[in-house]
Specification:
alpha/beta; Rossmann fold; binds magnesium ion; binds zinc ion; metal ion binding
């Protein structure tokens, strides 16, 4: 099937359990129940699924790019096991005070995704558990979805979400809604 739609997901707290101590090893990467199956359902409905994730643990020296690659390999393999396909992972390895263009809440990573996939981000669903995920997506024209997994409940309690933010229990619930909205099959490009 030609995948003509795009969705952008944060990683920690959306696909896998988050930790205040960072996800520093493959063992610490543990999927949230139902998240990979939800990605498979998106794929079947014609979505390309792209991850955009801040990984300042690299700048802090908590883990290396090699370890990050191994974590992502584990994620891709776990996805494959349930028939899910993550098309790409974009990450920002910088610290907040590096002042890069890619670290969320800046929109740089999302604009890179738009360029790579040659699509407009207008209305593209952007799913995150932190305010800065949704701020970055909002700047890029995405439709913001907050999930209550990971840091989501604290994020909702703090408020200040971009206008139009939809709040759902988890990624599986977001996908339920997205797929229910579309009655007809995805158009091919
Ligand atoms: Mg997160
Ligand atoms: Zn960066």
């Amino acid at each position: 099937m030609v995948r003509s739609k795009l969705i952008i997901l944060d990683r920690d707290g959306v696909i896998n359990h988050d930790s205040d101590a960072f996800i520093k090893s493959t063992d610490e990467w543990i999927p949230i129940p139902g998240s990979l199956e939800a990605i498979a359902r998106l794929n079947q409905a014609g979505y390309r699924v792209v991850v955009a994730t801040n990984q300042s643990g690299i700048a802090r020296g908590l883990f290396s790019i090699l370890t990050l690659n191994a974590i992502h390999q584990k994620m891709h393999l776990a996805a494959k096991l349930v028939g899910a396909d993550i098309d790409a992972v974009f990450f920002c390895p910088h610290a907040a005070d590096d002042n890069c263009a890619c670290r969320k809440p800046k929109a740089g990573m999302l604009l890179d995704i738009a360029k790579r996939f040659d699509v407009s981000l207008k209305g593209v669903p952007n799913v995150g558990d932190s305010l800065r995920d949704l701020q970055a997506g909002f700047l890029a024209g995405c439709a913001p979805y907050l999930v209550l997994t990971g840091k989501g409940e604290a994020t909702q309690a703090k408020g200040g979400l971009p206008p139009g933010t939809k709040v759902h229990a988890d990624l599986a619930a977001v996908v339920d809604l997205l797929l229910k909205k579309r009655a007809e099959p995805a158009p091919s490009v």
